[in-house]
Amino acid sequence: MKSRHLKTLREVFDRPTRSNIVFSEMETLVLALGGNVVEREGARIKIVIKGAVWRAHRPHPGKEAKKYQVEEFRELLEFIGVTPQTAGERE
Q1: H or E stretch including 10?
Q2: From the centroid of its chain, how far is CA 31?
Q3: Element (H, E) at 66
Q4: Are 55 and 38 in contact (CB under 8 A)?
Q5: How buried is residue 53: exposed, middle or buried, by Cβ count under 10 Å (0-12/13-18/19+)?
Q6: For 56-73, what is each residue's pLDDT tens digit?
């Protein structure tokens, strides 16, 4: 995992939840973890990773993910067993 992906992962797991994480960086992290980002209608996307699915809207007009999106994404990563601690073990 590249250092920028690890940085994004750490930001997703920060408490309190951050509101300045760029949504596209979360998508890039999914791709780095071997997942897929499926384009849907309009701003909708579906993220599939290790059998888990998360549906979301890309933010617009801004580029930062909403806090609830970061929290849902964190839950998805925890569900599939990816945390900053487990990612650090892989390096």
Answers
A1: helix 3-13
A2: 10
A3: none
A4: no
A5: exposed
A6: 999 988 899 999 999 999
Q: Is the pTM of this model over 0.70?
A: yes
If one compares 86 and 66, the residue with the highest pLDDT of the two is 66
Kindly report the number of other CB atoms within 10 A of residue 12's CB atom: 24
Residue 86: its pLDDT value, please? 83
Quickly tell me which residue has 């849907």 as its tokens. 40
Residue among 26, 23, 28 nearest 58 (CA): 23
Tokens of 21: 């994480």
Per residue in 40-53, pLDDT (tens digit) is 998 999 999 999 99
Give 73's Cβ-side CA count (13 Å radius).
Answer: 33
Q: Which residue has the tokens 């998805």?
A: 76
**Number of residues that this document lists for the chain:** 91
